[in-house]
Specification:
Largest sheet: 7 strands, mixed
Strand content: 15-25%
Structural class: alpha+beta
Radius of gyration: 23 Å
Number of strands: 22
Distance between the termini: 31 Å
Bound molecules: flavin-adenine dinucleotide
Number of helices: 17
Helix content: 25-40%
Strand order of the largest sheet: 8-7-18-19-20-17-21
């Protein structure tokens, strides 16, 4: 019997455990696994609450449909009929500009304008930026050189206003990070490739769209997918499929040591020996548990920065619902001087999450520039959010309920040079047979990428044990 330890019971660790469980149940390979989770519950940042008939997501609320791994996992878990799409006909996002909500023009793909008229007439950009956008069309292809920040890259194409009004707020929403810190190659690899091939991102985007239109017409898949009972449904289904005796909650691993051709894992007052090990925690925690095994590896992992996030969900009555703008929500550029980074009108994005006589507004704070919000008392955070909603939306009504969730060091920040760091980490890991890394610190922060990383890590350790084909845990 070969024994495998998994450290971390978020979606990455659970996906790894599920892949091993499937192998174990098939009886094809003699394996057993133990999953160590520091907290009393499994699922990491994936938490769904029910409050007064409303479904409240504490962490992720959905995932990108175009990345298939989370949907595939849901299907394997028997949740195919529970998958739901975002309400895309209602999709409309606003940007706060000088205190007013301005709708993002039609045809903007991430931040690349692909339709001329809506961009020309949009009040979102100044005349100077519009001229920059037009001249971007003539950018010549640029040979890939050194990595750079997203801000440098976007500014080169569209100027500083695009960084402030779109790139930065969009990245705050996804990574809790700043365009001036994040690596364009790690965060927007498609854009780097487009620049190398086409020069202009606008032309590249249109060429890609034409190609897609020429190929078989894609079904109108929704942008985001979620589950009827919330993201926790995926966690519950995963846990129900795992061997209960393999799950050790409230078991923080302090250290691991490579010895006797395997791994000794120390959690609490106990230590246990395994043949292989999957570390599926944030990279900072991975650095801490691996420091006695390989200082260099721990140092590289420790260099992957994380930011914190606070989500605040407010429930309102039907009068507020009627008064709120249509659309999915709004983004707040830093230059607006607010603490809030973004807000989602949940009742529009996923209508069944609120009864028809309720509105749900979910607000995001924190991120790389406002770590101190984490130290604030919940009442103070609520005061900030309500004051800002009053200024931005004129929303002064007393909420029917409010929930505040704090996520410390949960959002990985892929800084400039991240891809080179991953290569060094991969090289160091190869010297430690039977070790695989998974989680949001490496090649994708979203739920689908975390599922992929966990599944690949399981494949990698089985291969290292001579039980299955090899695959790299860090491959995209
Ligand atoms: C507020 C928020 C909103 C988000 N929204 C979206 C979204 O809408 N769509 C999307 O795709 N993604 C979203 N994300 C990102 C995505 O949810 C996460 O990247 C992903 O869930 C991380 O999963 P994970 O298992 O890698 O890490 P985590 O969920 O952080 O789990 C890691 C686990 O490891 C455990 N652990 C740590 N150290 C140890 C130790 N020493 N011993 C044992 N256990 C340990 C922790 O307790 C934790 O349970 C969001 C993230 C946040 C925080």
């Amino acid at each position: 019997m070969r024994r495998i330890a998994i450290i971390g019971g978020g979606i990455s660790g659970l996906a790894a455990a599920f892949a091993l469980e499937e192998t174990r149940r098939s009886g094809s390979l003699p394996i057993e696994y133990v999953l160590f989770e520091a907290s009393p519950r499994l699922g990491g940042v994936m938490v769904t609450d029910r409050v007064e008939g409303c479904l409240v997501e504490a962490g992720p609320d959905s995932f990108l449909t175009e990345k298939p791994w989370a949907i595939d996992l849901c299907k394997k878990l028997g949740l195919a009929d529970q998958l739901i799409g975002s309400n895309d006909p209602e999709r409309k996002t606003y940007i706060l500009v000088k205190g007013k909500l301005v709708v993002m023009p039609d045809g903007l793909m991430f931040m690349v304008p692909t339709k001329i008229l809506p961009t020309v007439f949009s009040p979102l950009f100044s005349l100077r930026s519009k001229i920059r956008m037009a001249s971007e069309w003539f950018h010549p292809p640029r040979a890939a050189s050194a990595d750079e920040t997203v801000a440098e890259f976007v500014e080169r194409h569209y100027g500083p206003e695009m960084v402030d009004r779109l790139a930065d707020p969009l990245l705050s929403g996804v990574y809790g990070g700043e365009a001036s810190q994040l690596s364009v190659r790690a965060v927007l690899p498609r854009f780097s490739d487009m620049e190398a091939k086409h020069g202009s991102l606008g032309r590249a985007m249109l060429a890609a769209r034409k190609k897609m239109a020429g190929a078989t017409k894609r079904s109108a898949a929704p942008l985001f997918t979620s589950l009827k009972e919330g993201m926790q449904q995926m966690v519950d289904a995963l846990v129900a499929r795992l061997d209960p005796s393999a799950l050790r909650v409230s078991s923080a691993v302090q250290s691991v040591i490579a010895q006797e051709g395997g791994w000794t894992v120390a959690a609490g007052y106990q230590s246990d020996h395994f043949d292989a090990l999957i570390v599926a925690t944030p990279a900072t925690a991975a650095a801490s548990v691996l420091r006695m095994t390989d200082e260099k590896l721990a140092a590289e992992l420790g260099e992957i920065r994380y930011s914190s996030s606070v989500t605040v969900t407010l429930g309102y009555d039907e009068n507020v619902r009627r008064s709120l703008p249509p659309g999915f929500g709004f983004l707040v550029p830093r230059s607006e001087g607010r603490r809030m980074l973004a807000a989602t009108f949940v009742h529009n994005k996923f209508p069944h999450r609120a009864p028809e006589n309720r509105a749900i507004v979910r607000c995001f704070l924190g991120g790389a520039r406002d770590e101190q919000i984490l130290e604030s008392h919940e009442d103070d955070i609520l005061r900030i959010v309500r004051a800002e909603l009053k200024l931005i939306l004129g929303l002064a009504a007393e909420p029917l309920f409010a929930r505040v969730y704090k996520w410390k060091g949960a959002m990985a920040q892929y800084g400039v040079g991240h891809l080179e760091r991953l290569q060094r980490i991969d090289t160091l890991c190869q010297k430690l047979p039977g070790l695989a890394l998974a989680g949001n610190g490496y090649s994708g922060i979203g739920v689908p990428d975390c599922v992929r990383s966990g599944t690949e890590a399981a494949g990698k350790v089985l291969a290292a044990l001579g039980l299955e084909q090899n695959s790299s845990p860090l491959q995209a």
